[in-house]
Amino acid sequence: MYLAPQNYASRSKLNHVVIALTLAIAAPASAQSVEDFYKGKSVNLIISTGAGGGLDVGARLVGRHMENHIPGNPNIVARNMPGAGHVQATNYMYNQAARDGTSIASILPAFVLHQVIDGRGVKYDAAQFHWLGSSDVDNMNFYVWHTANVKSIEDAKTREVLMGATGAGSYTALFPTLLNNLLGTKFKIVSGYRTTVEVHLAMERGEVQGRAGNFFTTLKSSNGEWLNDKKIAVLMQVGVERDPEFKDVPLLTDLTDDPAIKRILALFSGEIAMGRAMLTTPGIPEDRLAALRKAFEDTLRDPAYIAEAAKIDLPVRALGHARVAEIAREILTTPPDLIARGKQAKFGEGNAQP
C-alpha cells in the first residue's frame, strides 16, 4: 500500500519515540548490578536428600556461609527434595526452578550417569546445568551390620544380605545391583525408604542388614561410633583411589581381575570423583553465574566455614567448577559400547558378564 510522504514521516517519528521509550525502560534492568539484584532476595537451595543426612548437613553449612559472599547478601533458604534417586530434585531444577540466579542445588551426581545409562524419570539434560564447584571429594562405601555375619564381598556370594535402598536411581540400590550382576553376590535390595536416615534406623532395628552409597566423612561424623564399636563391616569403597584412613578396604574396581568387568566398574566409580557438587539452572545470566561461582569458592576459603566444618569432622577438599564440569562431560559422552555393557550390569539385560 502506498503511504503519503507526510504519513510515512509521522509513522517514522512515532517508531523512533517507541524505540526510545523501550530503551529507556529496559536500560535500568539490563544495567542492574548483581548486588542490586540479590539485595533483599532469597536464594533457594534444593537438597536432593532428606534432612539430617550427610549431603544435607554439608549443603546447609555451605549455604549458611555462602550467603555472606554473594553480592547483596541474599538469604539462602534450604529445602529438602528427596525422591527417585535424586531425579526428582534434578527435574525440578531443570524444569521448574527460577533461572534468574535465585535457585541453586546440592544433588548427588548419580543423576549424570543415570541420564545415559538408565533414563527412567529423566526430564533434564545434565549437560545444560552450570556447576558452582564441589565442597568435598570423598569416597563412598558399602557396609553391613555386625549381625549379618558378612565380612567381605566374597562372603556375600554365599549368603543373602538385605540392603536398604531409597530409590532405583540412588547409590543405595546401584552398587548392590552391580555386584549381583557382575560378581555373583546375593544382596537383596529392600526399597521404599524415603531417606538414608530411615535406612540406618532400619539397620538398627534389624529390618535390613546393610547400606551402600554413604560418604566416609558422613559416616565418621554422623555414625562414627559404628566404626569405633565395630557395629558395621565396611566391605568396599568407591572412588578413584583408596581413602588413606581405609587403605585395607578394597575399591570397587579391586574386586575383579577381569579387564572388561573392571572397565564397567570404573565407569560407575567415575562420578564419585565429582564429590559434593553444587549447581545452578540453565539460562542464568552470566554475571550472576560468575558471582555465584566466586561466592562458592570464597566460602570454601572462609576461615569461619572451615572452622565450623572441622567441628563436625567435615573435611574441605574443594574441586573447581571447571573440573566438575569436565568429569560430567566425560560421563555424558561415554562410548555406546560401554553404555550398553553398563546397562547389562545395572539391569541384568541379557548376559551381565561382558
Task: Note down, in words, how this protein is organized.
- It is a single chain.
- The chain has 354 residues and is α/β, with parallel strands linked by helices.
- It folds into 2 domains: 42-137 and 275-336, Bordetella uptake gene, domain 1 (D-Maltodextrin-Binding Protein, domain 2, 3-Layer(aba) Sandwich); 140-272, D-Maltodextrin-Binding Protein, domain 2, CATH 3.40.190.
- It contains 13 helices and 10 strands.
- It has helices at residues 5-30, 34-38, 54-66, 87-95, 110-117, 171-183, 196-205, 216-228, 259-270, 286-301, 303-311, 321-332, 336-347; strands at 42-47, 75-80, 103-106, 130-134, 140-145, 161-164, 187-190, 210-215, 232-238, 277-280.
- The strands form 3 sheets. The chain has a 5-stranded mixed beta sheet with strand order 2-1-3-10-4. Strands 8-5-9 form a 3-stranded antiparallel beta sheet.
- Strand 6, helix 6 and strand 7 form a beta-alpha-beta unit.
- Helix 3 runs antiparallel to helix 11 and helix 9 crosses helix 13 (336-347).
- The N and C termini lie far apart (72 Å).
- Residues 1-14, 17-30 and 349-354 have low confidence and may be disordered.
Average pLDDT confidence is 88
Q: Poorly predicted ranges (pLDDT <50, ≥5 residues)?
A: 1-14, 17-30, 349-354
- Report the C-alpha radius of gyration, rounded: 24 Å
Please identify the oligomeric state. single chain
Helices and strands: which structural class?
A: alpha/beta
N/C terminus separation: 72 Å
Helix content: 40-55%
Strands of the widest sheet, in order across it, are 2-1-3-10-4
